[in-house]
Amino acid sequence: MTALAPLAVGQTKRVPVGLELYSVRDELMKDEIATVRAVAKMGYEVVEFYAPYFNWTTEHAKEIRKVLDDLGIKCHSTHNNANYFDDGNLAKTIELNQIIGSTYPIMASAPRMANVDGWKQLGERMTKVSERLKPLGMATGFHNHQTEWSSPEGPRPMDVLAANTPKEFVLQFDVGTCVQAGADPIAWINANPGRIKSVHCKDWGAGQGADRGYRTLFGEGDSPWKAIFEAAEAVGGVEYYLIEQEGSRFGSLETAEKCLATYKGMRG
Prior knowledge:
- This protein has a single domain (17-267), classed as TIM Barrel.
- The protein is built from 10 helices and 8 strands.
- Strand 7 (198-201), helix 9 (225-236) and strand 8 form a beta-alpha-beta unit.
- Helix 2 runs parallel beside helix 10 and helix 3 runs parallel beside helix 4 (90-100).
- It is α/β, with parallel strands linked by helices.
- Mean pLDDT is 94; it is low at 1-12.
- The longest helix is centred in the middle third of the chain and has 18 residues, at 116-133.
- An 8-stranded parallel β-barrel has the order 1-2-3-4-5-6-7-8.
């Protein structure tokens, strides 16, 4: 593979890079705090906790916050199951996110939708969540998967969701799933200025083999990263990047370290 040249992006600010902790889920389940420390030691500046965090007590959330503060890293967002936004769960979601410093509780994936109307209804539901969060200095959003990039009956689900949510609703962009679905990542960013607050830097590699698909290491797949970074920073309003890896030929911590090294090589 040809080495990637550093990007010459005219950045107006330095964008921090983090890790979606699903990437190291095996280690996280064994020892949560040790894993966060290991990730920080690699040089990651941000972490994103995913669904199991909802089982924390407030005392444990405070312990996690102290660890983050001691390490000098941030948690800007969390990944949440759809029911975490239900009336009976939203208060806990808000409380845990506030404790750890997260201002963006993101819906990680949507319930199965039968048609476009279902996506419109999801937009209405998440608009109500947005209205509740806004006075708290928080916002919610949605993390895409490949299924949202096409529709046999008309508009794509992602376009429907974007059109039926307020501008502060974050369109957390998972790049690999967009590329796998054959959609244009640059067109998506340009069509939604200021709403791509975070990007999941997950790659996709076409072809057969154990190291292709979503097991392709970041930077070794088909995603046009240089153009993605440029668009995200010039138009998308990106505030931080998150490496995400489904798995690879290496252990999860080694994979996270290799991906960060590639990212830093790209960014100069």
